[in-house]
Amino acid sequence: MTKKITRSILLGVGLAGAVMAAWRIVSRIKPLPCPPWLSWMLENPLTRGMNADLLIKRAGLKRGMRVLDAGCGAGRITVPAATMVGETGEVIALDIQPAMLEMTRNRVKAAGLENVRYMLVPLGENMIPENRFDRAFLVTVLGEIPDRLAAMKEIAASLKPGGILSVTEMLPDPHYQSIRTVRLLAHQAGLVETRVFGNTMIYTLNLRKPIPAG
What we know:
The chain has 6 helices and 7 strands; from the N terminus they run H-H-E-H-E-H-E-E-H-E-H-E-E.
């Protein structure tokens, strides 16, 4: 029985690796969002470094905050973030795939939450309200966006002065973006690095929108 379980695990890991490798090759030609049927890849024991509660803690969420979950996917961050900010707070779950937003809606409904709103829009096209959010999340999403700088600038504009964008990236994600790449985009978007967690393999980079002098 143990050998069968071991073989099954190895087969699963091998399959996941093959899918990621193929996906990375295709994504170099054209950035593609994670399809709904692959959302399970971000919700397994191998991604402990991206535990939702850990990422929420790193971002410093508090009750009453307004939060943007940009590229929310199946709602892995959305639900615990909405729970943390409470009834006086708000979470906007944004994605370009209706199926992903539907998965998030189901998750939110199952959790009995009523402080989540939904946006079916792409990032980088200036469709997000400005100066609205205390925190924003980009969790393994940046590399899926065709115009990453435009997306970073749009999210920066959507933050309140002093607000934080928390970017998390992980290998072997096919769309992985290096810390250097994220730092460059952040600098161009006018964001200031405040803290980095983790290492090259899996990291979270917190970026702050400056507060105007005076």
